[in-house]
């Protein structure tokens, strides 16, 4: 009897992992209705009889983004109403010479990145207790995967521009930067807590939080 409960528990755990993604749609598509103010898990569906080809189309990924940012990186996200409830989206990433995406996580999505131009150093850190850094140098045409929820980064290692295309396994992957979450929250995390956590003095912790 005990072994039977163990097997049932194991099957339940496996099924829980398999189901941990955006839910499958219950219709062919659910084009987002931009005029609706109703809040749901996703967006309210547009009347299928009013759907057009433009609802499934986006033409902006050929346009280079403005990388005049502190990190030298900018992302252009696909805004396609027809992706609503389909559990996928994509972003173009532009990197100035030596630009980067600071360490961050996507709490709801695995990310797959394809280098279109230049060369990127990419990496992610495994969870506790190993906290192992896994990195790779990506040339044009190379692909790399960042598992869902793990801290990762991308960095242009050359003095020329770089471009990458990222696909996400969620329509709303979200992005949480480690530095902003720790030192830029509202209200702020207590300085003494940050100082002890990062093993720095309180003055340094205050200076980082003020940037």
Give a description of the structure.
The chain contains four helices and ten strands. By secondary structure, the protein is an alpha+beta fold. The chain has two domains: about 25-175, Jelly Rolls, CATH 2.60.120; about 175-210, no CATH class. It has a five-stranded antiparallel beta sheet with strand order 1-2-9-4-7, with no helix packed on it. Helix 3 packs across helix 4.
DSSP strand tally: 10
Which architecture of the largest domain per CATH?
Sandwich
Instruction: Indicate the proportion of strand residues.
Output: 25-35%
What is the N-to-C order of secondary-structure elements (H for helix, E for strand)?
Answer: HEEEEEEEEEEHHH
User: Largest sheet, described in full?
Assistant: 5 strands, antiparallel
Could you name the CATH topology of the largest domain?
Jelly Rolls
The share of residues in helices is: 10-25%
Using the alpha-carbon principal axes, give the shape: globular
GO molecular function, one term: manganese ion binding
Subcellular location: Secreted, Extracellular space, Apoplast
Binding site for oxalate: 106, 111
Family: Belongs to the germin family.
Task: Give a concise summary.
This protein has four helices and ten strands; from the N terminus they run αββββββββββααα. It has 211 residues and is of the alpha+beta class.
List keywords for this structure.
211 residues, alpha+beta, Jelly Rolls, 2 domains, 5-stranded antiparallel sheet, 10 strands
């Amino acid at each position: 009897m005990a072994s039977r409960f163990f097997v049932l528990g194991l099957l339940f755990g496996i099924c829980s992992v398999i189901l941990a993604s955006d839910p499958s749609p219950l219709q062919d598509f659910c084009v987002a209705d931009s005029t609706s103010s109703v809040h749901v898990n996703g967006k309210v569906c547009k009347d299928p009889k009013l759907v057009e080809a433009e609802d499934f189309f986006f033409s902006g990924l050929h346009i280079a983004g403005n990388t005049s940012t502190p990190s030298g990186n900018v992302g252009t996200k696909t805004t396609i109403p027809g992706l609503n409830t389909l559990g996928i989206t994509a972003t173009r990433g532009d990197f100035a010479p030596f630009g980067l995406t600071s360490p961050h996580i996507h709490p709801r999505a695995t990310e797959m990145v394809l280098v279109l131009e230049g060369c990127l150093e990419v990496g992610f850190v495994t969870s506790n207790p190993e906290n192992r850094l896994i990195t790779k140098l990506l040339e044009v045409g190379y692909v790399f995967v960042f598992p869902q929820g793990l801290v990762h980064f991308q960095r242009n290692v050359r003095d020329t521009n770089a471009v990458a295309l990222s696909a996400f396994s969620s329509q709303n992957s979200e992005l949480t930067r480690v530095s902003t979450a720790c030192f830029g929250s509202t209200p702020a995390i207590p300085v003494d807590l940050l100082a002890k956590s990062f093993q720095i003095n309180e003055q340094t912790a205050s200076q980082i939080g003020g940037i």
